[in-house]
Amino acid sequence: MVEYLANVSERVKRAPAIEMERIISGRQFRPGEKRGCGVGKTKRGKGTKWMVVVDGRGLPFQQYKMSKMKRSTVKTMQGHINNYLLPKFAGYTLGMITAEKVNEYLSSDDVSHLSPKSQKHVVTTLCLIAGKKFGRGAIRYPAPKTLREEEPCRTPEEMQLIIDTSEGQDKVIFAVASETGMRAGEIYGLEVTDIDWIRNQIHVRRSVYDGQIQTPKTQNAYRVIDVKPWLLELIKKHIGDRKLGLLFMSSRGHAIRHTTFLRRHLHPLLKKLGIKKSGMHAFRHGRVSYLVEQGVARDIIKAWIGHGSDAMIERYLHLRTSYRAAALANIASLQPNYPTSFAVSSGSSVAESVQPM
């Protein structure tokens, strides 16, 4: 009898878990629909647009986790869901989405254009919304098929030309980007109170994404940047007598939307100056490269840029040809008495210059 009761007790304890597993495995992976003011009410009374996994009654699954994420993160996950996950897994139950199915998908042409890092982000989105955890090494990410293109980088001459040519608020934004290497969202999120006029410093405390205030990208992004006095004078002239509010605003007095700024301000200016089209992040790459060329200590660069590793500094580094040539010229030659008559003439190769014995 005691053994029987023990077995019954064990089955009772496992019953909720078994039922929950059955319910989760039966959920369908499909887009959620707007459900009016009853679910995810917004200021305009519309339901949230990013309910993804729903049960038979249309109730969202894992909505709480997504609602706590940044606006930029949610938008990125929406792109993963709409562009990659739904076309493949629509109609699947969560119990059918196994590591084998995911590996089969990653090896297909549907995601072959994505880098391994982007593929990992897509799989992470799948795991978050489906509540799944694949074992270590269960997911195999293929090697990239194409070489990584070098990211755009502004030269000091280009940054100076952009600042000199622009006017008004644009001039101040480009100057801040060139002198600090701040991310675009961090620049748009600056407030008057973030400027330390006495110590000549700028405090990074927030960011802007899609016109909405949010926290900076990482914990290291909270930082203090030392700047030249001329930049603060330029900012002070721009804000006038204002003591509060955002440093930079749209014509309607709202936070700047990055896509709008690129389309209406930066890209037309680059086209006018004959500079290759790129985004605001090229200023960040240019600033890091310039600081390295000027011999600034790596720890100072990481503190100003907001990164915690030397690897990220290397990723932002673009050393100019003139800097490389100057560095080479300062290196003592291993052959100081090398005959100058052996110099290779223009248009000839080394093989052609070497005469057989």
Summarize the structure.
The chain has about 350 residues and is mainly alpha-helical.
Write up what this structure looks like.
The protein is mainly α and 357 residues long. It folds into two domains: 25-130, no CATH class; 156-316, Orthogonal Bundle (hpI Integrase, Chain A), CATH 1.10.443. Helix content is 47%, strand content 6%. The strands form three sheets. Strands 3-4-7 form a three-stranded antiparallel β-sheet. A two-stranded antiparallel sheet has the order 1-2. A hairpin with a 4-residue loop joins strand 3 (195-196) and strand 4. It is globular. The relative contact order is 0.08.
Question: How many domain regions?
Answer: 2
Helicity level: 40-55%
Arithmetic mean pLDDT: 77
- SS element count, helices: 15
Cα shape? globular
Question: Biggest sheet: strands side by side, in what order?
Answer: 3-4-7
The tally of strands reads: 7
Order of helices and strands: HEEHHHHHHHEEEEEHHHHHHH
CATH superfamily of the largest domain: Intergrase catalytic core
* Oligomerization status of the protein chains: single chain
Q: Can you identify the CATH class of the largest domain?
A: Mainly Alpha
Which class best fits the helix and strand makeup? mainly alpha
* CATH level 3 topology of the largest domain: hpI Integrase, Chain A
Q: What is the CATH-assigned architecture of the largest domain?
A: Orthogonal Bundle
Rg estimate, integer Å: 28 Å
